[in-house]
Amino acid sequence: MDAHWQTTLGDKGAHFQGNRVRDFGEPEAELEAVAAGETILADLSHRALLAATGTEVLSFLQGQLTNDVYPAEHGSPILAAHLSPKGRMLAGMLLFAFEDGYALDFPADMLEPLAKRLRMFVLRADVTLSEAHGQWARLGISGAEAETAAATAAGAEQLVPGGVTRGNHGTVVPLPGPHPAFMVLVPYEAAPASWAQAAASARPVGLPAWELARIRAGVPDLGEPSSERFIPQEANLEDLGGISYTKGCYTGQEVVARTKHLGRLKRRLYRVRAGSPLAPGQALYAGGEQSQGRVVNAAPRPDGGWEALAVLRIEAANGDQPLTPEGEPDSALAILDLPYEVAGEAG
Length: 347
What we know:
Blueprint: H1 3-11, E1 15-17, E2 20-23, H2 27-35, E3 40-43, E4 48-53, H3 57-62, E5 78-83, E6 89-98, E7 101-106, H4 111-120, E8 128-131, E9 136-142, H5 146-154, E10 165-166, E11 171-174, E12 181-187, H6 191-199, E13 203-204, H7 207-216, H8 253-262, E14 267-274, E15 283-285, E16 291-300, E17 306-313, H9 314-317, E18 324-325, E19 334-336
Parallel strand pairs: 3-13
Antiparallel strand pairs: 1-2, 3-9, 4-7, 4-8, 5-6, 6-7, 9-12, 10-11, 11-12, 14-17, 14-19, 15-16, 15-18, 16-17
Helix pairs in contact: 2-7, 5-6
């Protein structure tokens, strides 16, 4: 994060944990705002942003990601994942048209492994991958009035439905999921003004509140603790539109296609609640010693508990044995509804 931008947020009341905003002085009220469906505003500038340019960039990415990337050329943001040869998700990401090429947004702890792996496949293609997060502040806006706040922050009269919008001083990218949510990218020098404009109709919150909102949208954000643990369907990527079964070959495609044609998943993504803290990568059990799943993302709830997205064995999630987090055998999990239809329920 840009040092001047961090100082600006500090002047607005931000409390930091490293380079991430923990809260704006009222952490419980910020979580309550999410629960009440209020429009919220968060700084996302700690996330990785990888710029992808060159005359062959889309054909290159088409051979590396789970989704059809060509709609990005026409302004549609693309949810996708890059897989290992065994079909496991190395990282999930959002691909969108940006500046004179495209950009990939994903968790910061996956920057080095993902960039390194993608560059291995560039070979002689006219493709350049470069780190861009040092140039752009990113504002996350979610909630009922998110569209208005995002358009104002970017200096746009109105947003392109479902597409990337370029305003006078920023770019708006719709985020995946059934709830209204956007990321606004602005140069750091324009960030204070954009933040102030968005804050006129959205409540500033720290990262825990933002993560709670995204958990309630049912959208996983796979960082290092989840890397190479799940195939895309197990993380509900199919249900979120992050997989194309007609685009042709890409790394790990055979495993994804075989899972689709067999038609049965043993694990999938659930939303859960717990009375004790949860953490990404934490194992979950149902009696016995064998793990039945792992937490992907977690955030505190306003009632003092915790909420998470977790990949669980379907049989265990539907079974009689209580699910408990690793190290907390007396803290049973409750399964909560997701805000979208889920395929592959049979286990």
